[in-house]
What we know:
Elements: E1 11-22, E2 25-37, E3 43-44, H1 47-62, E4 67-71
Parallel strand pairs: 2-4
Antiparallel strand pairs: 1-2, 2-3
This protein binds zinc ion.
Amino acid sequence: MKCMICKNGETRPGTVTATLHRGETIVLVKGTPAEVCENCGEYYLDEAVARKLYALAEEAARRHAEVEILRYAA
Ligand SMILES: [Zn+2]
């Protein structure tokens, strides 16, 4: 699809390190499948992936973690 940020690039399937903020907690999820813009690097998550990431962030926030680095597991 066309990138919505730079309106120039096309997105390609790839993986990213997604960053989520949940209150005071920051969660980094490596190897997250996403559509990545070949021009500006912006990434787009599909709904199922986004839901999974939010669940991980919620969990980390409940543990009162400051920063958590996780690996995406399908
Ligand atoms: Zn772009």
